[in-house]
Amino acid sequence: MTRSSIGHPAASDWRDQASCAGEDPDIFFPLSDLAAPGTEAALARAICRRCPVLIACRTWALDHGEDDGIWGATTAAQRRAIRRATTETIPAVRRRGDGAGEESLPG
Description:
Blueprint: H1 40-49, H2 54-63, H3 76-96
């Protein structure tokens, strides 16, 4: 365990627990995102699917705009689609701002 500059134990990095640790990084950065059986992308996604930190990995890639490689069993194209769907949905809810679904409290 490491300590931060203020002396508190640092949280274990999710990457330390990743199934891909020790694997050839080229597997996770294939020339094509197509995950046909037998391709590097398919192999990478299979490794990811059994990973205990799959969600943390996918979340990191989405939060950091990672546009290359296989992260959390998703291809770059899949992550772009997730980001598009998220940015199209969230602003519409915020823009509405009409309080729909909120109960008014007496008083």
